[in-house]
Amino acid sequence: MKPGIHPEYRDVVFHDTAADTYFVIGSTLQTKNTIEYQGKTYAYMPIDVSSASHPFYTGKQRQAQNDGRVSKFNKRYNFKGLE
């Protein structure tokens, strides 16, 4: 590798603000923000979505779709449920 042309590779704390979860990941991200996390100082980057809050990984979207299908079926056939 050529010296002096590569960005610094370091550990960065990514904070998923939707799920309030922290991830420490190696990155070349350039940021001036820092955070004290587990006794060490890291570069800090807040993010909106990660695997902790994205519906594909949490399965919440699938549940919502299933609820919609059941409701649509009940509405179509006037099904009132078991009484």
* Portion of residues within helices: 25-40%
**Sequence of secondary-structure elements:** EEEEHH
Radius of gyration: 22 Å
The order of strands across the largest sheet is 2-1-4-3
Q: Which descriptor suits the 3D outline?
A: elongated
Describe the structure.
Helix content is 25%, strand content 31%. It has 83 residues and is of the alpha+beta class. A four-stranded mixed sheet has the order 2-1-4-3, with no helix packed on it. Strand 3 and strand 4 form a beta hairpin. It is elongated and about 70 Å long. The model has no long low-confidence stretch (mean pLDDT 81). It comes from Thalassotalea loyana. Part of the 50S ribosomal subunit. Belongs to the bacterial ribosomal protein bL31 family. Type B subfamily.
Keywords:
4 strands, four-stranded mixed sheet, 83 residues, alpha+beta
SSE map:
Layout: E1 10-16, E2 21-27, E3 34-37, E4 40-47, H1 55-58, H2 60-76
Parallel strand pairs: 1-4
Antiparallel strand pairs: 1-2, 3-4
